[in-house]
Structures are given as structure tokens and as C-alpha cells.
């Protein structure tokens, strides 16, 4: 719908809205009416084009209601199917504008410097994200108002802000282009660094012949294949030393007797960083390279270290060799690996996975050192991480957050068993502190009586939380449910998980109260676009309080309801998708939201660490890059939707 020449006056509320805008606020009522007669009121449906690229502009558009996107289409063809839910699938969004913003500043040069006959100058399209109402202000009207200093200053100020945005975005694109162009982990493929041809042996080949092959071809590994040429195992120097030489064997052994079956593999098209991550996480030094189900080469940890030595091999060795006296030397080495991963632009989820594996090795070693101090445990036990360590989100060493579970002792031995694990918990905390983990201010550590105990005690502990569903106990339960098995007897771990599942089944009212707590703390979604928001007022968001914690809590509640225990956030999303709690589309949105929030948090925390400042999870939008603002807004909306799904699931929606 259009209203030309204002033959029909706009509704009073629309007129009042226009009247308050800086372009019109200085006019008398008579002047205001005269100016309005030269303007056009236009409405646009959701997804309708507002302005087309390569179409000359005839003035400025003031958004009275709704949201619009300024974007570049990928080529000279129409995109009728574009939707705001898929803004990055086919177009590149440059700017998101909201009520009160003006569109068309890129054509201001036409007004100031004369009309151009170069339509290519207008390279962007504008599309309504939702139903919108706009006021078209022709240049003739702008000309009549240009003598007013307030109008002139406002328009030039807005143009200057847009120019600043454009330059910042342009500089960021150049920086990223240079970064990706020089970033070896993202441009170097495994087929560029693998060794060829691959040396192979038959499953029934004599072990002496396998060793002879290694000597002949100066290689540290041989792949074992079947009659069809399919990979079934690998024999490495380590295999020969451990399974042949160390045992004084040799005669009569075949490749199948000493090989490692079902070895970790990697695709020829995988990236450098993926191979490095596999070495670090799986504790191997050889990866057969596959293509179409066939082994075509071999890549080793030494190959990658020769290409780019990150000191990771020495780090892994130093963890296992450290003692209480020198374990503190591990932390700087860990941070050096982290610095390289960040510098190389490794995806945040992958970065956290690598660092979690490294920190897990450090904590396990601290536990083993503690065990040497207190002696053999009288009953089996299990050690669990909680918090960011439990969720696999640790990149800098954080406060300690863990607990101990041990097998129910016989009554006559109970006092001695309890004393033993009190000493063990204290030693573990001391060794972890020496390694760089600060003590937990809230005392959620295995050294504390409330965070260690037998199976029966933990069962009673959860029951007491459920019976007294205070906010404190609800938060304790949330932290507890982030637990991740790290060390100890797997059988006891399974028993512990079964105990917790049984208690969750009996604690539906407690879960309901946990859901009620989420309802009391809704995720902020910022209904207006962040690009416009950060120019108009100062806004901030706490990434932990407003994003990560609600995400974790909601996933925990859904997993608890459907008897799915353990797993970090991405694993929980996968589990809930497999059980049809989430659609594939919802799961993809949640993964994206999780990656966005963690990436921003890692970037900001690492920058603060490098500058020697205390990091904060509070983020001000005007300190974020343009792309980060938009993606954070999308992430918050996704988590808010998850929160609403949880409330509906528990009858609170």
C-alpha cells in the first residue's frame, strides 16, 4: 500500500512518531504538514524487496515500523526465496536496520555532489525482514530541510557512523583474508604431508618380515591389510618393542599377533589441524590415510611437527614425567599450545576438545601423584570433573571443581576408608593447585566432606537436595549434573550413574522446580537488531549468566527427563536429536549458538589474559565486531527458544 502526496493523513500515532524524528522535530506544524505532502508512506511485506541493487535512489527511507536487511546477493540474479531465517545461505548481510533508522545513505553523494549516471554504484539490495512501514523522503524534501543545522548535522552524523561501520567491516575482511591465506592448518591438506607409497603387510606375514620391511623402507609403521586390500590393523615400532622384544618373543608370531587392530585413520582431504588434533586426543603417532576405503599413505606426528613444531610432543611427555616439584612448569607449555591453536584459527569446539584432552592428562597425572603419596585405595573409587572442566569448555586453567565417589565399605572398615579418601582428596587438590588450578572459592572439591563419599552417601545427598528444593540446592544440582568421568573404576562409574538415574526418576518435582528457576531467569533476546542497538544505547550481556548457563541447564533438564545422563553440551544435543526431542534443524541452530558464544568468550578471555587483565563474562555490544553482534543476537534467540521448549515440556509454558 502507498499513500502519495499525503492526500490522506497518516494515523495519529504514525504522525506523532514521524514528528519526533530528528529530521522533522524542528519544524512548525505548518512546515511539518507541507513537508509531509512531499513524502510517500510505503508498506512492505515480510521478505519483500525495499530497494534493488543497480537501481538509482531517489531519496532516503525512514523505517517507521519493522526491520530491514541491507545485503549483497551472490551474483546478478534474483533471489525470491531468501528468508531472514536463512540470511547466510545465499546472501551476505551487511547491515540490519530497525525502527527509527534511515536507508539510502550510500546515495547521499548524489544529493551532495550531483546526480550520477552510474547505476553500478548501488551494489546492495534492501529487504524487509518482517512487515515494515517506511517513509520515503525525496531529495527535494531533503533539499528544503538542508538549511536547518539540526537536520544537516543528523544526516551527516548518521552517514559518518555508516562509513565507520563500512571501514571497520572492510578492514576485518582484509585481515581475515590475509589470515586464512597464510594459515597453514586451514590450507594444508593431509595429502600434502603424507608419506607414499604406503608400506603394507599381509595378516599372516611373519613378524620378522614385518620388521625387515620397516628397516628396508626406513619407516616406523606398516599397515596390515586383508586379501581385498582393506585395512585391518597397523604395526608400529612401539608394537614390536612392547609385544615382541620386551617379552623375548619372535619366533612363530605373525602380523595379526602384534598389530593394533582398527587403528585411527584420516581422510586424504582432511586438514592439518584435524590430524594434529587426532594425535593429541587419541594418543597415537601414526594415522593411515584413506581414500575410497583404501589406504593410500601414512601421516605421522613427526611429519606434522617437522612442518610446524608446536612443542606438543614434548608437552605430552613432560606431563607424564612431572612431579609435585615441577608440575607447575606444565601450565606455560599448555598455554603455548593454546596460543598456537587460537592463532591458527582452529574452530572453537575443536580447540576446546584438544585442550580438554590435554588438561585431562594433567589432572589424571595429579591424581596418580596423589595416589603415590597416600598409597593403594582400600576400595574402588571414581573421580569426576564438574563445571567448565566437566562440560569440556576449559581453555585456560580455571578453579577446581570436582568430586570423589567410592564403593560402599563394610561397616567395620567405614571409618578407615573415609579417612583414606579424605587424605586422597586433600592430596589431589594440592597437586592440582601446584599444577595451576586455583582452589574453588565455593569449596566444591574432593577435599571437602560435601564433595566426596560412598555410593550410599551420594544417593542420600541427592535425596536431601530434592527434598529441600531451595535455590541453592537447585544450583548445586545443576553444577553436579555437569559431572564427567575422568579417573577410576568404570564399573563403579556405571553403578554411580544408575544410582543417579534412579534418583532423577524419583525427583520429578525437583526437576520441575529446576525448570521453574529457568522461567524466573529468561534469556534476553534483544528484539531490535544489534547493529542499530549499539549506536543508540549501551547494552551488554553476560555470556555465562544469560547464555551458557541457560543452555547447559535446559539441556540437563531435557536429558534428565529422558534418562540421558552425562555428556557435554554438543553430545547432549546429539543424544536429544537421536531421541527425537530436537529436530535436525533445531540441533543445527543450537550447535551454531553454542559455537558463537564460546568463540566470543574464548576470544575475549584470551585477549584479557594476554594483557594481564581479569577477564569478565560481561560483554558490551559496542565492543564486539559487527558479525559477532549479529550472530550473538541469533544465538540468544535460539537459547531463548530452547528455554521455552523446556518450560512447555515441564508444563510451565
Describe the protein's architecture and organization.
This protein is of the alpha+beta class. Helices cover 50% and strands 15% of the residues. The strands form 6 sheets. A 5-stranded antiparallel beta sheet has the order 1-2-9-4-7. Strands 3-8-5-6 form a 4-stranded antiparallel beta sheet. It has a 4-stranded mixed beta sheet with strand order 10-11-12-13. Helix 23 runs antiparallel to helix 25 and helix 25 crosses helix 26. The N terminus is likely disordered.
Structure at a glance:
The protein has 653 residues and is α+β, with helices and mostly antiparallel strands.
Beta-strand percentage?
5-15%
Rg (CA only) = 31 Å
Relative helix content: 40-55%
Query: Shape, please?
Result: globular
Structural class, from helix and strand content?
Answer: alpha+beta
Q: In terms of quaternary structure, what is this? A: single chain
> Could you tell me the mean pLDDT?
82
Biggest sheet overview: 5 strands, antiparallel
Residue stretches low in confidence (pLDDT < 50, at least 5 long) are 1-10, 75-90, 116-120, 176-183, 528-536
Spatial order of the strands forming the largest sheet: 1-2-9-4-7
Measured between the Cα atoms of the first and last residue, the distance is 37 Å
Question: Using DSSP, what is the number of strands?
Answer: 22
Number of helices in the DSSP assignment: 26
